Amino acid sequence: MRALDDLVRSGKVRYIGCSNLQGWQMMKVSGISRQLGLHAFQTAQSYYSLAGRDIERDIIPVLQDQKMGLLVWSPLAGGFLSGKYTRDNQGGADDRRNKFDFPPVDREKGYVLIDVLQEIAKARETSVARIALAWLLNQPAVTSVIVGAKRPDQLRDNLGASGIVLNEEELSRLDQVSRLQPEYPLWNPAVYLEDR
């Protein structure tokens, strides 16, 4: 942290951040930074998508509490939410996701999600990828997304998501099919209901 602090103080970087840390690790670094009078992390780079909402349990609450930004990597879940994959088209034997399934996706739950994404995309006359990215851009904790387009047409399509504002009904439908199951201690009805 001292080395990163030196970079900020010398003007070589404006802000520092972390990538792929757990919430407790971010809080520990925040405490150390505060205790030693060092610059603290201003942002985190984490995996987040409609197919992978795990950071909502621990990381997003830390980011909000510490007023940190969130830069999302793999917002289309390694291409799973690009519109390419369906129950009927899971890619060929040479497909990257069939060779290296990363980030991991619960495919059965994912196909239900893709069905809803396709319905919303069709009604809006746009792509599945744009709707998946627009959902992320509608999340209060998200500062920006890091897209990994391979071709110019994919990049153009991804950039088109920035102009889409999903309505409450669309957000609710996507939330319902992608929502995480409560984990302890949030599955305790008293805590779970209080948190909502």
UniProtKB/TrEMBL annotation:
Signal peptide stretch: none
NADP-dependent oxidoreductase domain boundaries: 1-178
Example of a GO cellular component annotation carried by this entry: cytosol
Protein name: Aldo/keto reductase
PANTHER family reported in the protein's UniProt record: NADH-SPECIFIC METHYLGLYOXAL REDUCTASE-RELATED, OXIDOREDUCTASE
Species of the source: Paenibacillus rhizophilus
Lineage summary: Bacteria, Bacillati, Bacillota, Bacilli, Bacillales
Pfam entry (one): Aldo_ket_red
Gene3D superfamilies registered for this protein in UniProt: NADP-dependent oxidoreductase domain
